[in-house]
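Our working data are protein records whose layout never changes between entries. An example says more than a description, so a record of this kind follows.
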Amino acid sequence: MNWYALHVRSHFEFRVQESLDGLDLEQFAPHQTFKSRFGKGGVARRPILPGYVFARLDLEQHHVPVLRITGVVHVIGFGPDPEAIPDCEIEALQALVASGRALRREAYEPTLGDEVEISCGLYAGYQGIVTIIRGECRLKVSIHSLRITVSAEVDAASVKPVKRVA
């Protein structure tokens, strides 16, 4: 069984977590606890990654039952197939949460050599490899689908990572 990320509806992270628990599936909804401003000094939970719950699944056996859980939108992947998450990445995230330190979600930042797809603008849908990074917000991407060596400068916020083929 592998770890998968489930995209869930807003504010459904903990309900989905409980439903997965009811199916006897290992799950992880990274959250932090804090003192509630309301009530009598109670404690509340806040998701670190709103909209995501991780579950260890055998896709052949659990894919459909998991998709039937209220609040689950889909199992995340690149393209039509769900993408397994390496155990070491989940273990690292669990260790960060267990540390008790304040955590925050960071935006994806492409790095040199990353395979990316441009998600908006003139070159939307094209894939390439990050070749040059300028400052914090700009990068150059080689557009391979044109079958010529052409580079386009695009905004870093308009790219998303592409599954690497091993």
